[in-house]
Amino acid sequence: MDARAEESLIRAAALGDRQAFDQLMRCHLTPVLRYTTRLTGSPTTAEDITQETFLAAWRGLDRFGFRSSFRTWLFTIASRKTVDLQRRQSAIVISDNTFEAMEVRTPGPAARTVEHSFLVALQTELGRLGYQARACWWLREVEGLSHDEIATALAISRGSVRGHLQRARSQLAVRLAAWGPDGSDVHEARSPGRIRHQIPRPTTEGRRDDSPAPR
């Protein structure tokens, strides 16, 4: 969806057009659900946070004001909802199966083994990062947000974003040293672009019938 079409939908939705908001939700549901799944490690919890995010967006469209992109605004809401959850819980459970549905696209069993092993290791090490470092890394490397957009989404300074990204990348580089650039297959498997391409897309299949809908 181009920026002009999205702006028209946002303005229509802000005036109460439910169909316009439904189009916006269909466009942005997957990245928001993917993000909350990564942060919480729980598909069920991520679904709840995503639903709360879109409910809050629907109810707060009159306050959007186009001060950021709509996508960044949704990530901002989702981040706040996740932080609220963290405050209510002693810890966020990191799932061991976040990447299990990834489709491996490298040819041959050896390459598939290397890539799967790397993704499992990456998932483990991401879970060991602090919340903001993990969120910064994910929004940058997987969702492709700029430093400014990440700063807006997480309500932190641009300098903090750079710091979190630097620490996350440094820690991942050390902890994933076994997957260094010595082998071309391994280097290809660990590139951010390839990781982004393989992240499983959450679906709404199995969504609870009693889940709230924007109104």
UniProtKB/TrEMBL annotation:
Residues 120-172 form the RNA polymerase sigma factor 70 region 4 type domain. GO terms for biological process: DNA-templated transcription initiation; response to stress. PROSITE patterns: SIGMA70_ECF. Residues 183-215 are annotated as: Disordered. InterPro entries: RNA_pol_sigma-70-like, RNA_pol_sigma-70_dom, RNA_pol_sigma70_ECF_CS, RNA_pol_sigma70_r2, RNA_pol_sigma70_r4_t2, RNA_pol_sigma_r2, RNA_pol_sigma_r3/r4-like, WH-like_DNA-bd_sf. The keyword DNA-binding applies. Residues 24-90 form the RNA polymerase sigma-70 region domain. Gene3D superfamilies: 1.10.1740.10, Winged helix-like DNA-binding domain superfamily/Winged helix DNA-binding domain. Residues 204-215 have a biased composition (Basic and acidic residues). This is RNA polymerase sigma factor. It comes from Williamsia marianensis. The lineage of its organism: Bacteria, Bacillati, Actinomycetota, Actinomycetes, Mycobacteriales.
